[in-house]
Amino acid sequence: MGNQVKINIRGIIHILGIVLVLEGVFMTSCIIVSMIYHEKDIKTFFLATTILLLSGLVCWKLTNTNRSKTFGIRESFIIVSLAWFLMSLFGAFPYLFSFSIPSFTDALFESVSGFTTTGSSILIDIEALSHGMLYWRSLTHWIGGMGIVVLAVALLPFLKIEGVLLFNNEASGIMQEKLHPRIGNVAKRLWIIYVGLTLTETLMLWAGDMELFDAVCHSFGTIATGGFSTKNKSIAEYSSYVQYVITAFMILSGINFTLHYFALKRQFKKVFHNEELKYYLLFIFGFTLVITIQLFSRFHTGLEEAFRRAIFQVASIITATGFATDDYLLWPNLSLLLIFLLMFVGASAGSTGGGIKVIRHVFLFKKIRASFRQQMHGTAIIPIKINNNPADPRIVHSVLSFIAIYLLTFLTGSLIMVFLGVDFHTSIGSVITCMGGIGPGLGDVGPVGNFSGIPQTGKWLLMFMMLVGRLELFSIFVIFTPQFWKN
Amino acid sequence: MGNQVKINIRGIIHILGIVLVLEGVFMTSCIIVSMIYHEKDIKTFFLATTILLLSGLVCWKLTNTNRSKTFGIRESFIIVSLAWFLMSLFGAFPYLFSFSIPSFTDALFESVSGFTTTGSSILIDIEALSHGMLYWRSLTHWIGGMGIVVLAVALLPFLKIEGVLLFNNEASGIMQEKLHPRIGNVAKRLWIIYVGLTLTETLMLWAGDMELFDAVCHSFGTIATGGFSTKNKSIAEYSSYVQYVITAFMILSGINFTLHYFALKRQFKKVFHNEELKYYLLFIFGFTLVITIQLFSRFHTGLEEAFRRAIFQVASIITATGFATDDYLLWPNLSLLLIFLLMFVGASAGSTGGGIKVIRHVFLFKKIRASFRQQMHGTAIIPIKINNNPADPRIVHSVLSFIAIYLLTFLTGSLIMVFLGVDFHTSIGSVITCMGGIGPGLGDVGPVGNFSGIPQTGKWLLMFMMLVGRLELFSIFVIFTPQFWKN
Fold first, then answer.
1. Any bridge partners for residue B390, and if so which?
2. Does residue B159 contact residue B167 with C-beta atoms inside 8 Å?
């Protein structure tokens, strides 16, 4: 009541400045790509990079005060939300300046979709874009994916927000096994894993029937679980070798990056005893099995083809990548329904993947099992164990609330879309695919469709959904609560 | 491990015997109806009643031992589940013996639908049935509705199952305001309210354009929130006066019967301060408002007609009655979606209505609000208040688990239906309408459709869904857990 909150605005602007400068540095690589292909977009990128770097530098340097003084939860929430929005806003400039996407709404949509690693596109003809622009599109995925991993695994645990399930990490019980006590080191190691995975995939794709340029772009899209392709037909354009390589790397990218680190350090015990990984793989192979059988029996394809189509699409949806080799809307009902349900599953915490995340479902399942036992014994609340450690009841609460808020947000979003006149399937499909950061949805926005036909207001709603989903709801929603602005 | 549980089987059979005898007593009234209309079904009912009374008496009298000795939670769960199943099984005999419904599956479906007060029907031509049979059909609703109210408000709180959300009552926070310390008295008062509401509605309908017979049957269907009509066109057959009367009584029947009792005793404070009632009415009028506006603007009807159609359907779905004046499948998308969402809302705890129940949503909303506050303050779990009393955290847990299990059951059921080859809309529509005890669903089982086209296995699944939904999940599911059979 009345007690106005003091927010460290200078500190916020300072950090956002750094973020923009980093984005600018990344964008300079687009100038090089444009130079290689002798494209006129070189001017576009030069202009956009200049604006970006200047804005960033101004914010960064003019606020270089003692920002550690009053830097708390509020500031973190605001920075995280604004960082993704500002990156997307500046990231839309190349599309606009080059007239590749002349509408502001559409350009911002494509940019938000990129940085949130969603991969939903308003483009009808992707191949009409210049190399520089295609590269920037995929690069936005890569930046966004890197950002989310660093945020989830390295930065947030150090903010010491107790009992708060701000990001995945605390839910996964991995807090006890901190990578390394220093942010800088952790971020560096993550960076090495991230770049390492990207390079390996690029080389493997290049070794197949992909050109180097496409291999780089698709690797960006895979490791970030983004889903923008450089081809209109997405991965259906390529050989089964390429499809298997991308499937493998999608699955790898949906695993908690902490586990990659443990694997690199040959601490395999920690990897194999991780419950989330177990269930994540169980989901993938379970769904793949059922869909393979159905595709095999209905479409009279070879067993290998049925398996390849099934596992590619399952991996693409569960990790929220969104690449396509197939139009799953044409699949038999049960398989289609399974794909739709997968959109609510999500990948692992601490990965680049989106959605609700497997660990939260594990919590939910265990909670339900415990409630049956409670029902019989009628005693105190039975604690839940994750990775053999009892879970903090506050985190269990947060997880259950998260799932509830997620579903409510999905419902509300779908209702608004229907209200805007969008048909039922397209409504629910577009909302869940944007919230989950997946890419393709149902109806008009299926794997062979695109988001150009969604009404203007709907596109803004979907942008909001992408940001809200990527930043795990709370960080954005909490800013809109009155409590946030009270002491 | 290994400790075999001793279950008081004699006690269970004893009580089930009493239940069957009671059902038999009710069924004798069908003989009278058949006599009045000089129908040949008189023999059918005579035979069915005899079998019922004999079976009941045998079970009752041959087990007349000291049953209070070891009578615990397990026995209660088993009795509740078996009671509804056995009532339905014996209740199907009249349909079978008279060849009104020659298929056993169909006859049982109609009977389960009756006793669970669902109102989903496999009949294509309802008006082809005899008066006796139509009366029995509606009477099964009335028996089922009475059973659920007595169970929820009178019997279960006395079983002293601590921390268990077996039935609605404990969730509604009404435990603290027990009606009266003695089961017999409470049951008697509920009986009076139940009969009183039924009589009042019958007279009011009869005063309109309904014949006495139809007025009685429709009152049975309304007060029990069942939904079986005696007419193929359901309530669309009747005047707007009748439609308003039925709307009012549907809304009344969806209110906790404890509140009716308080109202009768002129303790209006307790009624007006009840949070569930507030939100229940809010849901009804909120949804009605939006749908009225949409129907008014789209269909160019009068405002009164738009309002009447909207509130009738909203009341019918939220209370899980399922009467129809309209085919909501032809409504604009947003209104249809709202109707679908209402299927997940449900009526009040301690009423005859079905579904998840408003009180559980109130818990969920409050829990979500608290989790936002927790997010900001990062301290201990913030307690939730219902009716200004802090809610037991164990109950909050139970409620959240209930909602999760409800949605999971819905998803699993829908998947099985799709797997059986039923189309997507019919699948989700039939499963939710049967779980919620509503009646009409989506697709082929909409307000003007029926359940005759559902495959055989699907009908059995839906019967299971009706029982599971009516008995609030736990009581049935818990029997299938290994813990149940361990000491």
1. B385
2. no
Three-state DSSP at A90 gives helix
Residue B323 structure tokens: 């009467």
**CB of B5 less than 8 A from some CB of A:** no
Distance from CA of B231 to the nearest CA of A (A): 32
Phi, psi of A161 (to 5 degrees): -90, 95
Residues 355-384, chain B: which have Cβ within 8 Å of A? Answer: 364, 367-368, 371-376, 378-381
Listed as own residue / partner, the contacts of B94-100 with beta carbons closer than 8 Å and 24 or more positions apart are: B94/B27, B94/B30, B94/B41, B94/B44, B94/B45, B94/B48, B94/B132, B94/B133, B94/B136, B95/B133, B97/B44, B97/B47, B97/B48, B98/B41, B98/B44, B98/B130, B98/B133, B100/B129, B100/B130, B100/B133
- Please give the model's pTM, rounded to 2 decimal places: 0.85
How far apart are alpha carbons A385 and A363 in whole angstroms?
9
For residue B265, the number of C-alpha atoms closer than 13 Å in the C-beta half-sphere is: 15
- For the record, the structure tokens of B295 come out as 């129907």
**Phi, psi at B271, each rounded to 5°:** -70, -50
* Sign, Cα dihedral of A154, A156, A157, A159: positive
d(CA B324, CA B316): 7
Contacts of B378 in chain A (CB under 8 A): 73, 161-164
Number of neighbours of residue B306 by Cβ within 10 angstroms = 21
Test A404 with B364 for CB contact under 8 angstroms.
yes
In chain A, the residue whose alpha carbon lies closest to the alpha carbon of B366 is: A401
Question: Residue B320: left if φ>0, alpha if ψ -120 to 50, beta else—which one?
Answer: left
Structure tokens given for B469 = 């939904």
ipTM for this model: 0.78
Q: Which of B166, B376, B403 sits opposite A478 (nearest CB)?
A: B376
Q: Do A372 and B411 touch (CB under 8 A)?
A: no
Q: Are B318 and B346 in contact (CB under 8 A)?
A: yes
Tokens of A70: 């009053």
Query: Which of B163, B401, B419 lies at the smallest CB-CB distance from A367?
Result: B401
Ordered per-residue pLDDT tens for chain B, 487 residues: 445 667 788 888 988 999 999 999 999 999 999 999 999 999 999 999 999 999 999 998 888 665 455 666 777 778 888 999 999 999 999 999 999 999 999 999 999 999 999 999 999 999 999 999 999 999 999 999 988 887 776 555 554 433 333 333 433 334 444 444 556 677 778 889 999 999 999 999 999 999 999 999 999 999 999 999 999 999 999 999 999 999 999 999 999 888 898 898 888 988 888 889 999 999 999 999 999 999 999 888 899 999 999 999 999 999 999 999 999 999 998 999 999 999 999 999 888 998 999 988 998 888 888 877 776 665 566 778 887 778 777 777 778 888 888 999 999 999 999 999 999 999 999 999 999 999 999 999 999 999 999 999 999 999 999 999 988 876 677 777 776 777 5
DSSP letters for B407-446: HHHHHHHHHHHHHTT--HHHHHHHHHHHHTT----SGGGS
DSSP state of A139: H
Residue A194 CA to residue B407 CA, distance in Å, equals: 37
Q: Vertex B19, ends B18 and B22: CA angle to 5°?
A: 85
Number of neighbouring beta carbons within 10 Å of residue B301? 14
- Enter the DSSP assignment of B129: S
Angstrom distance (rounded) from CA A159 to CA A391? 20
Report CB contact under 8 Å: B394, A415.
no
CA A468 – CA B477 distance, rounded (Å) = 36
Three-state SS at A389: strand
Using only C-alpha atoms, chain A has a radius of gyration, in whole angstroms, of 22
Residues A316 and A227: beta-carbon distance below 8 Å:
yes
CA distance A135 to A169: 31
